[in-house]
Amino acid sequence: MNHEIDDVDYVLHSSMSYEMYQRLMRIRNHDLHKFIAWVTDLCKPSSVFISTGSPEDLEYIRRRAIETGEEIPLKTPGHTVHFDSPFDQARAREDTAILLPGSQRLPFIRTKDRDEGLREMFSLLSGVMKGKEMLVGFYSLGPKGSPFSILAVQVTDSYYVMHSENILYRPAYDEFVRQGERVRFLRFIHSQGELNEMGQSRNIKQRRIYIDLPGETVYSVNTQYGGNSIGLKKLALRLTIKRAMEEGWLSEHMFIIGVEGPGGRATYFTGAFPSMSGKTSTAMLGRLIGDDLAFLRNINGEVRAVNPEAGVFGIIEGINLIDDPLIYEVLTKPGEVIFSNVLITEDGDVYWNGKGEPVPERGINYTGKWWKGKTDDKGNPIPPSHPNARFTVSLKAFRNLDPRYDDPNGVVVGGLIFGGRDPDTWVPVFESFNWDHGVVTIAASIESERTAAVIGKTGEREFNPMANLDFLSVDLGIYITNYLKFGENLKNPPRIFGVNYFLRDEQGRFLNSKEDKRVWLQWMERRIHNEVGAVKTPIGYVPRYEDLRRLFHNVLGRDYGLEDYNRQFAIRVGRLLNKIERVWKIYSEVSTTPRKLFEVLEEQRQRLIEAGRLYGDPIPPLKFEY
Ligand code: SPV
Ligand code: MN
Q1: DSSP state, 360?
Q2: Which ligand 1 atom sits nearest the alpha carbon of residue 253?
Q3: Please, which residues have CB within 8 angstroms of residue 45's CB and are 6 or more apart in sequence?
Q4: Among 277, 385, 432, 473, which one carries the catalytic annotation?
Q5: What is the rounded CA–CA span in Å between residue 306 and residue 408?
Q6: 8-state DSSP, 554
Q7: Ligand 1 atom at minimum distance from 233 CA
Q8: CA–CA separation, 43 vs 134, rounded Å?
Q9: Span 3-22, pLDDT tens digits
Q10: pLDDT value at position 130?
Q11: Does residue 85 form part of some domain?
Q12: Is residue 378 situated within a structural domain?
């Protein structure tokens, strides 16, 4: 099944105005023309808008988003709110699948027979845009004209989706025109489907997100939530991971930041964390390049990274003046911001959970009229804003934007950070012995408690290698093999660090305060420049007490007690061994797991057993050699 249509030119002519036709024809790429003709023929929109990304076109989309009610303007200039259905507030794992031929299956990945999936999708999309305008946008994932970059076309019937993409991605119509026949592009087709009286997707039961790897196309229907509908974000990630495997690079769910060290130098880090586990708040502590996605390539033996995005689709809950002053500023000053699933207050402002203001008595949220004490059908309280409520804003709005955020050559990565919500196993910060050790025992071993970023019960411990499991489109073993291989040809491989902000005591109290991560970042920065030593433990290098004491003093102006150090950085032998067992079991069920992974895990197991025999469990870090 492919995008074939008999008379491309006739279909294009008859479905759009002459001006729009000419815009499309300026891109001399027959594949593109065929594709647009095919989608038009399938979805049957009443008109087509081809966006060139010009200021007028961007303004048109903003205006239509408001006129159609997809967005509601607020009193602050540039601010709008979009509401998704109460049943469409997060990524829908159950409705998302990778289409594969026949009975092919991939461990941990929802797959579906390709023919069957396409048939179902085409029937859902058939005539779905009748009476609506179909929007076509052209974007570049990554800085334009960069060896990292990948071009993409979005087709949607939602002004909100296109408005979001105009903020989040680099417009690239001109690049399509320039490259013409040479363009190879990713394709995203989205329809919000039928809407209810609140303008929300009505047929959530028929929500489907299907990823077709051979056609490099993603289809998404009967959904509006950004993570399901904004093609270039998590849907593109499935396609770019596939390309990365074919071409030997890494397409990752990571932030990119520059951490300022002594003398104002910037050392660049990427960081992978499952959603809602401290990723954005960590990113804000550095000079921002990206908060969610990264392309990493080996360029002349160095790892370099770019952000495929140009904006932030961030979690808003808990953002307040004290904890996140930089984001708070962006969300409260005039300028283009789309809020989603927050509360609109009576005076046309927004309120979200944890904003640091008294909860309003009433307002409007994704459930319609809202008042304090409102409950759902089952009697559960409805909070003013959804825990996964978001904001969409350009990177350029941030004061801490790194000057090299759009550098076509990317930045040199000094360290990769991996973290999760782990109450009882990992220490707050540690460094692997080397690339392979880090890839296997840190990155590929992430376990994290589930959060509201995905539909389902929160709090369960989930395996989430590289914080990328939800987005994998290739066999996990092959993905890990590619990671290990990537490290082989590096002259000076980046360091790999694990962090854990969520360590708790027996009473469930956090062992660290929110700002401690500033110290961990500074420690990692010094490690990369070989300016601090470390304690060698069975799981890797752990900070020395005196270094942390100094850093706590310099960074936070606070004393750091030896007792805290011993508690936080104790090596929890039993729990670490249990973790190895769980991770081992998982990988042993994946037939493509590289042997190296088991070797590295086995070495770690032996080190832990030996240390446990010598020093007991847990082991205070001072027991180990300095
Ligand atoms: C995440 O949940 O990891 C996000 C938002 O960054 S979403 O687009 O839903 O994936
Ligand atoms: Mn994310």
Answers
A1: P
A2: 3
A3: 15, 129, 130, 132, 133, 134, 157
A4: 277
A5: 8
A6: I
A7: 8
A8: 9
A9: 677 799 999 999 999 999 99
A10: 98
A11: no
A12: yes
CA–CA gap between residue 482 and residue 248 (Å, rounded)? 7
User: What is the pLDDT, as a whole number, of residue 324?
Assistant: 92
Does 46 qualify as catalytic in the annotation?
no
Q: Which of 91, 230, 277, 293 to mutate to test the pocket of ligand 1 (most atoms within 8 A of CB)?
A: 91
CA of 89 to the centre of ligand 2 (A): 14
* Centroid of ligand 1 to alpha carbon of 393 (angstroms): 14
Give me the CATH number covering residue 386: 2.170.8.10
> Which helix H or strand E contains 137, and what residues bound it?
strand 133-141
Q: What is the pLDDT of residue 460?
A: 77
In a domain, 73, yes or no: no
For residue 223, the ligand closest to its alpha carbon is 1
- Looking at the fold, whether 201 and 275 belong to one and the same domain comes out as no
CATH of the domain at 616: 3.90.228.20
In terms of domains, do 540 and 410 share one?
yes
Q: List the one residue out of 575, 314, 569, 583 whose CA is nearest residue 466.
A: 583
**What is the per-residue pLDDT for 79?**
98
**Tally of domains within the chain:** 3
Distance from the CA of 431 to the center of ligand 2, in angstroms? 24
384 in helix, strand or coil?
coil
What percentage of the chain reaches a pLDDT higher than 90? Answer: 94
Contact 563, 620 (CB under 8 A): no
Which segments of the chain have a pLDDT < 70? Answer: 1-3, 451-454, 456-459, 626
What is the rounded distance in angstroms from the CA atom of residue 415 to the CA atom of residue 143?
Answer: 22
Residue at 82 is within a domain? no
CA-to-CA separations, 36 to 8, 47, 512, in angstroms, rounded? 9, 13, 53
Q: How far apart are CA 276 and CA 291, in angstroms?
A: 12
Residue 60 and residue 162 in one domain? yes
Measure 24 CA to ligand 1 centroid, in angstroms: 31
The structure tokens listed for 125 are 């999309």
C-alpha torsion angle, residues 29, 30, 35, 41 (rounded to 10): 130
Task: Report residues near ion ligand 2: CB below 5 Å.
Answer: 292
Tokens for 52? 């060139």
Can you tell me the distance from the alpha carbon of 251 to that of 321, in angstroms, rounded to the nearest whole number?
A: 33
Q: Which helix (H) or strand (E) holds 483?
A: helix 476-488
